[in-house]
Amino acid sequence: MKKIIITTIFLLSIYFTFSQNSERNSASFNLGEGISFSFNDGDYKFNIYGFIKPAYIYSDENIYTNDGIYSNVYRQFKSQNSNLFFTGFAKDEKLSFQIQMDYSSSNPLVEAYIGYHFDKHTSLYFGQMQVSHNNLEMTHNEDQLRFPNRGLISSAYTENGEEFGLFFKTSFGKSIIFNPTFAITSGDGKNSFGDDSRDSDKGGIKFGSRVNIFPFGEFTTGNQLSTVDLTHEQKIKVQFGIAYSKNFGASNKVGDGHGDFTLFDNFGNELFPDYSQLFFDLNLKYKGFSLVLEYADAFASGLDEIYTDPNSFNLLIPQEISEYLVIGDSQGIQFGYFTKNGLSIDFIFEHFNPEFDLNESSILRKSSNTGLGISKYLSGNSLKLQASLFNTVYDSLNNQNDDEFISGSFLVQIAF
After folding, report:
1. Rg over CA atoms, the chain
2. Could you give the CA distance from residue 75 to residue 251 in angstroms, rounded to a whole number?
3. For labeling, which of 119, 208, 323, 373 is most exposed (least CB within 10 Å)?
């Protein structure tokens, strides 16, 4: 927080000094859009903005074991996000950049990339950025969420959401709009080159793609970055999406990190399985009502002759892969209504089906998640209050009571 205050004071001093200068240059400030600088009649533009999300979190869990019931209550005040963005665009050079920092994280660098724009519809990016081949909710920024936190499908199939690589985006169509994206990444998530030379990449590269289809045209301006119908679409608007990724040699449970586990071939060399994810989603908006349907599936391949020890004594059996990777499918539905005075009431239900549902050590457990959220948008996403209550139930495999996890949170989001 201290870093953010110092940075803000510094930037404001630049803003007031800069605003006194040449008529060909300009500076402005708008809540939620930050400080914008324009040079040479708009040929060069820079923007500095951010948001903070101070939150109160409560959770109560009941876990049943052979020795009895284990209960735990957790309460915490914290800054859920403290994000600062630096962006720039050079018109004639067709270049842009973005740097995003999250000062509430122990690894604050979130994004750092440059882009070349062939035209207003087609762009090529290089660096670390938010990928599009995850589920729909994970393609939206933290300040655009329907609930205070992402749903469990997002957290089950993704750890970070940012990866290092090469990214291509384009858009075409008139009455029906197609937005395809393609990515080739390191396959090791964000900060994939580690803290030092000893923390090297694992496995191979990762391919990913997403195609969004808008059969009735795109969402209106200001309504494209969130699944909530913030502008009350006057005609039904729908986004269909399909995303797929394959990591050739995954050493992270969801394929967007590295070095979480090590497997071997019969010579004692590192050998990792291939890991794929597939997502289908739909987002409908009409006069304040919004609906999101999500389907997720994850599976592994290349499992032949993989051992769990360097001496090749223990061959990996098929169901054991679920102890290293998230394997299985899930379904989710989110829906809600956003009133014209800025009040939003939202619901969520998610169900998870592990591929090896009888394996007690499977990372993905058979479970369901139900939640209710209430949000008050005081100035769009620039200033809003959010509260939520979730109930997650994990099916028991031992004829005991199901484990239950209840959580609630309240936060204030302030964008600047």
Report:
1. 23
2. 33
3. 119
CB 144 within 8 A of CB 377: no
DSSP class of residue 319?
G
Annotate 385-395 with b (16+ C-beta within 10 A) or e (fewer).
Answer: ebbbebebbbe
Give the C-alpha separation, 240 to 132, whole Å.
14
- From CA 216, how far away is CA 236, in angstroms rounded? 7
Amino acid, single-letter form, for residue 95:
L
Closest CA to 381 of 181, 177, 223, 166: 223
Burial class (CB in 10 A: 0-12, 13-18, 19+), 120: exposed
Report in angstroms the alpha-carbon separations of 336 from 24, 164, 199, 322.
46, 34, 44, 34
Closest residue by Cα to residue 299 from 317, 273, 281, 268: 273
Task: Kindly provide the b/e burial profile for residues 244-271, where b requires at least 16 CB atoms within 10 angstroms of the residue's own CB.
Answer: bbbbbbbbbbbbbbbeeeebbeeeeeeb
| Cβ atoms 9, 17 nearer than 8 A | no
Strand intervals (E) in 260-399: 274-286, 289-301, 328-338, 343-354, 367-377, 383-394
pLDDT by residue (tens digit) across 239-271?
999 999 999 999 999 999 888 999 999 999 999
- The C-alpha atoms of residue 388 and residue 382 are separated, in whole angstroms, by 19
- How many alpha carbons lie under 13 Å from residue 180 in its C-beta half-sphere? 6
At 389, list the tokens. 């209550």
What tokens appear for 325 in the block?
């990777």
Residue 6 pLDDT greater than 90, yes or no:
no
CB 114 within 8 A of CB 67: no
Question: Would you say the pTM of this structure is higher than 0.85?
Answer: yes
Q: How far apart are CA 302 and CA 317, in angstroms?
A: 12
Q: Do the beta carbons of residue 206 and residue 189 sit within 8 Å? A: no
Q: Which residue has the tokens 């399985």?
A: 273
Contact predicate 152/331, CB 8 Å = no
**Backbone dihedral angles phi then psi of residue 315, each to the nearest 5 degrees:** -75, 135
C-alpha distances (whole Å) from 94 to each of 46, 76, 98, 120, 183 are 14, 45, 14, 10, 20
Distance from C-alpha of 104 to C-alpha of 144, rounded to nearest angstrom: 18
